[in-house]
Amino acid sequence: MRNVPSLKIGLLAVSRDCFPIELSRKRRQKVVEACAKRTIPIVELDTIIENEQDVLKALEEVKAKNITALVLYLGNFGPEGPTTMMAQRFNGPVMLVAAAEESQRDLIQGRGDAYCGLLSASYNCGLRRIRPYIPQMPVGDPVEIAQMIEEFIPIARVVVGVKGLKILSFGPRPFDFLTCHAPIQPLYDLGVEIMENSELDLYDIVQAEKENPEIKQRAEEITKELGKGNTYPDLVEKLAQYEYALEKFMEKNLGAQSYAAFANKCWPAFEKYFGHVPCYLNSRLAAKGIPVACEADIYGALSEYMVVCATSMPPAILDINNTVPKDMYEESKSVIGDYTLTDLWMGFHCGNTSAQCIIQPVLQYQLIMHRLMEPGREPNITRGTLEGQIKPGPISIFRIQSTSDAKLRAYVADGEVLPIQPKSFGSIGVFAVREMGRFYRHVLIEKRFPHHTAVAFRNVAKILFSACKMLGVEEVYFNYPKNVYYPSEYPL
After folding, report:
1. Which pairs from 236-239 meet CB under 8 Å and 24+ separation?
2. Which domains does the chain possess?
3. How far apart are CA 172 and CA 68, in angstroms?
4. Most exposed residue of 150, 153, 310, 371, measured as fewest CB within 10 angstroms of its CB?
5. Helices 21-37 and 142-163: angle between axes, nearest 10 degrees
6. What is the pLDDT of residues 464-479, one digit of tens each?
């Protein structure tokens, strides 16, 4: 998938000078061997840090080897000052982990005390105001450390991606979607760049590609992807022109950044001038790793892009849309299992979910816009959605958002799409998240999150939670289990 960081992870050991340096070296080598057995890509760095001079040497080595994310490994107690200095001066995400003791037979010369050393390193991280990733159980044997490295890779990818991201926006956020509007100052605090453009700019760049010979080839790609779902073959070249123009604009305007996402206004004037809705094209760009958030939702675009980096899969942005009727719940109990009615909800959008995430996708028209723009007539300018039931399987929902006073918040929750026919229109599915009803009330409503949620088609809540913490997002909410109460929840 394009538009996502490709990382090179380095493993750098540290050693306190009153401990044998060989202990750190041998333990580092065992971690490398454990990574090789799990085919985890890792670069073993030769330098072992004991002092500040070693930090300078290690910085030269990571630069020479093009390391983009770093695992600092306490093979023994470790020197907390040089260790955290390395974390501070390295230009990329860092994980701190430590070696567990290996055997009761070697607890004199072979004892490393890294369990103790990690406490000192953590205190020094506070002094330097740095935020390395520290796993839930950060002390382990080589196999366990390898597993931690494997978990760190997508977290680091999210962090690198965010800091290299440019959000390209077209059109002001519409009055009916003020819920999508939020201050942009926190974007700059994260390292994200933003380039806001008008709808006239969008119209101009699309019209400029009208005679481009590349359009026919792009139209052939679209026709092949749709297959039997191509209900409007006369529309395909117009769709191809729009998609090609957006990609060309992105490549031309990345500037100092490496990655991009879009946040585009999509109605009501859009249809009158472009002659179609952009939904299906948004889905195609998402499948390439270039999310396009609807309704000029800038934080929705950021949320989707973080999902791309966490999964290397197409994201979706859906409305947390409607409840599941009681009769549908009763009819589907055989596949619902122990979920309650309030655990269930429907995720919906007009037709922007990628084809590989939908059962039998079909090119359709946007029913809601058709009511507004073409009442009583055959669909024309409202055509261009990709519709169908979202495939069953694991998902996570995620949103990062600025409050009105420019403070970042986020939420994460794992769940699944159930194999239940939604019996409705659009890109839609029946979603299940444990204790969703309480989460909806005491997080989504109470913390004033918008109706859009980014959907990952894997369970990656832990990855996104950890990445948000590394990025400095203090308030990251999740769905509390039963009998654990939110601060504002009446307990009886």
Report:
1. 238/274, 238/275, 238/276, 239/276, 239/280, 239/281, 239/384
2. 9-162 (3.40.50.10940), 164-478 (no CATH)
3. 36
4. 371
5. 80
6. 999 999 999 999 999 9
For residue 19, with 0-12 CB atoms within 10 Å meaning exposed, 13-18 middle and 19 or more buried, which class applies?
Answer: buried
- Determine the Cα–Cα distance for residues 256 and 265; give it in Å rounded to an integer: 25
Structure tokens that stand for 466 in this block: 């950890």
pLDDT band at 1 (very low <50, low <70, confident <90, very high): confident
> CB 94: neighbour CB atoms within 10 A?
26
> Alpha carbon of 194 to those of 253, 255, 301: distances in Å?
11, 11, 11
pLDDT in tens, 97-145: 999 998 898 888 888 899 999 999 999 999 999 999 999 999 999 999 9
23 is written with which tokens?
Answer: 């202990």
Q: What is the dihedral of CA 264, 269, 270, 276, to 10 degrees?
A: 140
What band does 267 get if pLDDT is binned at 50, 70 and 90? Answer: confident
3-state secondary structure of 140: strand
Q: How far apart are CA 414 and CA 297, in angstroms?
A: 23
Q: How far apart are CA 445 and CA 224, in angstroms?
A: 42
What are the φ and ψ backbone dihedral angles of 471, each rounded to 5 degrees? -80, 0
d(CA 178, CA 244): 29
pLDDT over 90 for what percent of the chain? 90
Q: 453 is written with which tokens? A: 């949620």
Bridge partner list, 348? 319, 428
What is the rounded distance in angstroms from the CA atom of residue 302 to the CA atom of residue 233?
Answer: 33
**384 three-class SS:** strand
CB 176 within 8 A of CB 135: no
